Amino acid sequence: MKIRSATLLLLGCLLAGCGSEVGGAVDDAAAGQQNLPPAPGDTLVEALLGNVSGLIPNITSDSASHEVGGLIYAGLVTRDRDLNIIGEMAESWQFSRDCLNLTFKLRPNVKWHDGHQFTAADVVFTYQTMIHPKTPTGYREDFRAVERIEAVDPHSVRITYKRVYAKALQSWGIWILPKHLLERYVLEGRLRDAPQNWHGPVGTGPYRFKEMRSGEKIVLVANPDFYEEGRPYISRIVYRVIPSQATIFLELKAKGVDSANLTALQYKRQTEYPAFQKAYWKFRYPSSGYTYLGFNLKDPRFADKRVRQAFTHAINKRELIDGVLLGLGREATGPYKPGTWVYNPNVKTYPYDMGQARRLLAEAGWKEKNADGLLVKDGQPFTFVLLTNQGNDERKKVAEIIQASLQELGVGVEIRVLEWASFIKEYVKKRRFDAIVLGWGIGLDPDQYEIWHSSKTGPDDLNHVSYANPEVDELLERGRSSCVDAERKKHYDRLQTILAEEQPIVFLYFRDNLPAVSRRVRGIIESPNGIRFNFTDWYVPQSLQRYTAG
Amino acid sequence: MLWYALRRLVLAVPLLIGITFVSFLVIHLAPGEPVEFQMGELSPESTAQAKQMLRELYGLDKPLPVQYWNWLIRIARLDFGRSFMPDGRPVLEKIGERLPVTLLLNVAEMAIILAIAVPIGVFSATRQYSLFDKVTTIFVFVGFATPDFWLALLLMILFGIQLGWLPISGLRDINWEYLPFWRQQWDFLSHLILPIVVATFGGLAGFSRYMRQSMLEVIRQEYIQSARAKGLAERVVIGKHALRNAMLPIVTILGLSLPGLIGGSVIVEWTFAIPGMGQLMVQSVFQRDYPVIMGNLVIVSTLTLVANLVADLGYGLIDPRIRLAGRRGR
Questions:
Q1: A169-188: b or e for each residue (b if 16 or more CB lie within 10 Å)?
Q2: A216 near B CB under 8 A
């Protein structure tokens, strides 16, 4: 009988799309109660897509390692909700008038998780680690600009730069490492072998490492000696390693994890039922990355800016966002995220206008159409190959919509979807493409030298589209050699104006980040810096706590 | 028999070297390298100099034949090297921590498959075209056609979300350490139920079909007919005389399944978040972690060769005629 009812349920579930699910008393209670006072305790269960590749984040680059490491270690500075730089282990800092000297005053009450006092020597040591030739790190560049670093006293550090370096302050968000534990390994060039890199990390952050089962879970517990107003509220974090996105989503529904990032489809269609809404908060804010249509500007057809502008007019960005992201994204007009201090809203925009697109193409010499309905110039029909990478349905759909839009103009587009590694290595880096659909993640600093400067068009460089503009070069150089934000903004405003006019790539959209977090968690604030910036302030009111362990 | 086994083992060495050579070449010629993965392919921070430093650290700056030779020398000393990931842990340590769960999962799966598939096959064959036979035939087709991941998701939705009876991923509850002993055992077992069901479902179909076919062939043999003519009970004819011979192909398949016990089932481990060998292999391939990929490959290749040998020897145990042929061959 039970088997029969289970079979019926399975069939029913298949037909109905599985709308209801098991509830939890705690989650139901959570929905009804507001303004409950903060209380320490409870466990937050998080999902990691991959296993951590090491627990010294300075020598890893994967997001899982950074997420875990980011709670164990701390930097001198961090970012607040509006992405402004604020002190973390640094109490204050001061630049010299010429921007060449930066002096940090450190918090006096910071202790390593093993009880040792944190001092300026650890900051100097971290710098030495980062520039040590045998440290396998991808973050060395920021520290090569340093000429000299000295511990003035146990709680002050003075750093002298060779030249003005705009990212100087931000670069000290790097995780500071314990000298007393790691010095030997760094000097011997064996930092990867240090026990702190696998089963015994010691940091100064809000959480301490408790245990790890490789590929299964990592457990952190609140640091009772955390310098910032004592220990964080959430007393334990369990990171579960779940490599499949589909499984993470099912675990979220089964309340096996407390938070997960949703896809647009999940956000809009698969979580819009009462049981889910009772159990989870859903958030939405722009991500730090945009999707673009890039051209090979060395191709004479794309070298003409009127052609690029015509394409921008022909692509209906709103329709693209609605179709691909179900409306959960924002149009991009340039490389900076709307709502950030460096974003310039007053740049030229290109409303969807096929007539204007045709006129621009005609001006560029693409007037006649052949028997296939394709525009022709000098006897050559306008067709090109649009490349993108496999495993990203979003980009594939974008390519298809672009193909349809340009087809209407009389431009033939052939889409080719390639495996990521060969796409990057064989096509993008070797510049063997007509056009690409790809994305850029934007860092927290507005410096875009590597992407737009004309000196960065070599095979291993990042100016893939081979854009070259002397004025842009100068703006980028000036922008990165100032430590005054107002001055930098002037340069970057102008940069955005030029890029909007020239359309070296078609800036398409910033997709939204769509995290869901259990409703029993309170104190979450949505901001331009996401939701995690105040993680130590998150709490679960006493009556809603689910776990007693830890 | 022993001589035969030894000769096969010795011949396996050049074969194994050949397999590793081709694998090494293919893996290294595939686009993308661990350095790119670690530094980020499109990261402004990943300067050419930084990448070169990592290449030197891993020995990737040397010509491919030199890299292969160095690797071979190390393997000959049973040194599988260290992972290229920032954790830099020994390959054997990484494999060692993943192996038990994969072994457990696959041995359990295999035992269940055998326990169910052999009787199903025998019944289907002895009652050919009966209702039971027809139902199992349909079951077999469904089993073959059902993708593992689809079935997995379906069962997760039903038993994990709708009914809330079983955990849907991982190996242990997050509070496992705090549970009493018996609850711990049940918790671990309950985490394995769905993965084992999914892994079993596909395999069951194949095995029962092989068993049926093999049994059908055997019961048409003359010696079975003479056994019946002698007046032996049907139970004895099938259970003693026919089954033994019908098991021969199953032994071959079982032998060939041996590497799979170690290699793990990628889809099941991936979907159910089980930290086994299948998952490790996929992650290592994505990350181009050459030492782990090669280490895994050497183990699985060796096992395949050994499994072939074991299957051949297994024939001998089941069918004395093969054993005698081996002796005569010597």
A1: bbbbbbbbbbbebbbebbee
A2: yes
Q: Do A9 and B86 touch (CB under 8 A)?
A: no
pLDDT tens digits, one per residue of A333-373: 999 988 888 999 999 999 999 999 999 999 999 988 888 88
Residues 6+ apart with CB under 8 A from A102: A93, A94, A95, A96, A158, A159, A161, A168, A169, A172
DSSP state, B149?
Answer: H
Q: Which residues of A touch B195 (CB under 8 A)?
A: none
Q: How far is CA B35 from the centre of its chain?
A: 30
Pairing of strands A412-418, A280-282: unpaired
Orientation of helix B148-155 relative to helix A245-253, angle to 10°: 10
Q: Give the count of Cβ contacts less than 8 A between chain A and B.
A: 177
Q: How far is A496 from chain B (nearest CA, A)?
A: 20
Cα B163 to Cα B159: distance, rounded to the nearest angstrom: 5
* Run of H or E including B261: helix B243-263
B123: tokens are: 């019944």
Q: Tell me whether residues A22 and B272 touch, CB distance under 8 A.
A: no
Instruction: Decide if A512 contacts A524 (C-beta within 8 A).
Output: no
User: Which residue of chain B has the CA closest to A140?
Assistant: B45
Q: What is the pTM of this model?
A: 0.88
Q: What percent of chain A has pLDDT over 90?
A: 70
**Contact between A134 and B57 using a beta-carbon 8 Å cutoff:** yes
| Alpha helix stretches (DSSP H) within A435-550 | 449-452, 470-480, 485-502
